[in-house]
Amino acid sequence: MKALAWVRASQAILFEASIVPALVGTAAAVSAGAAFRPEYLVLILVSLVGIQAGANLFKGYYEGLDRSVPPSSPGAWFAFDSGAAIGLARDPKAVLRAGRACFAVGVAAGLGLVAITANLLLLAFGLAGAVLAWSYTSPPLRLSYRGIGEISTFLAFGPIMTVGATVAFGGAGAESSVFASLILGFLAAAISFARYFPNRDEDVAKGKRTPVTLLGVRRANLAFFGLLLAPYAVGAGWLTRGGGILWMAVLAVSVALIGLSFMRTGGRSPQYRTAIALTILAHVAVGLVLAADLGFRL
After folding, report:
1. Backbone phi, then psi, for 171, in 5-degree steps?
2. What does the DSSP assignment read for 242-291?
3. What confidence score (pLDDT) does residue 267 get?
4. Looking at CB atoms within 10 Å, which of 103, 120, 205, 239 has the fewest?
5. Other CB atoms within 10 Å distance of the CB of residue 188
């Protein structure tokens, strides 16, 4: 049970947000003629997941320090439970040390890949991703507290991860990778955005400036669905590159299901968790279809 608690505190359910861009970026490169190197993909995945796990544990630690109000989502897997990291160890700083260890493993894997490929451009992508991951909740920037966390999420889980994976394989297929990265970036930002809804009251009490606390629930709903639909603005460019339209149909179905879920929330925080789960599923489904599209031109 203790191991399961650590898994939940690391928000492992969100690791797909790192895995999917890596697969899509790799597919873009291989479909453009790059040789597939499985060891490259393994190092990419270890690097991305390690850094994300570390950043998630940092978030759990720093959020857990503020106990002025009880968590809004206790026991949740999809919504963020600010109390998940509390009680994992006698010394709360053990969570911080575990986060640093995960982050270090991710950085080491990334540097190993840079060394193998001798690609300085890849180093630049890796540094940018690591800085954004560290700064999302950790001081001094704490971007998620300033209402701009979704910008960093879009960049990190979109262009940086997806195009970075393509660059690791030599850069062939970069143009297609860029279009795919924008689609994934918008959907990753939507996941982050959706997770603010159930925690609105807690965030207000803590003085966090999130999109939901700044905009109010009604306008935040519109902004959230704007993020979900934004990938269609990239669709025209994707089609000019010979991409297919199957991902558009998958996204349309996903948005419809998420919309129905929102209608049933009635403004009740716990009910948003279904919408969050569906948003994560939409990211996975659209990402896998994009990868298949690049590989097989569906």
Report:
1. 95, -5
2. T--SHHHHHHHHHHHHHHHHHHHHTT-GGGHHHHHHHHHHHHHHHHHHHH
3. 56
4. 120
5. 30
Cα distance between residue 24 and residue 161, in whole Å: 9
Supply the pLDDT for residue 107: 95
Q: Is the CB of residue 113 less than 8 Å from the CB of residue 51?
A: no
Helix (H) or strand (E) holding 5: helix 2-9
Give me the helix-helix angle, 231-240 and 174-194, nearest 10°.
170
Read out DSSP for 41-99? HHHHHHHHHHHHHHHHHHHHHHHHH--SS--SSTT-SSS--TTTTTTSSSSTHHHHHHH
CA 295/CA 75 separation, integer angstroms: 39
Return the pLDDT at 282: 97
Q: Average pLDDT for consecutive 10-residue bins of the chain (298 residues)?
A: 86 95 96 95 97 91 81 85 82 90 96 95 91 75 69 91 96 93 96 91 84 89 95 85 86 95 68 90 97 80
Residues 6+ positions from 187 with CB-CB distance below 8 Å: 227, 228, 231, 279, 282, 283, 286, 287
* DSSP reduced 3-state for 10: coil
Q: Any bridge partners for residue 209, and if so which?
A: 146
- What's residue 206's pLDDT? 82
Does the global pTM surpass 0.85?
yes
Q: Is 296 exposed, middle or buried (0-12, 13-18, 19+ CB in 10 A)?
A: exposed
Cα of 244 vs its chain's centroid, Å:
24
Sign of CA dihedral 204, 209, 211, 216: positive
∠ CA 105-107-109, rounded to 5°: 70
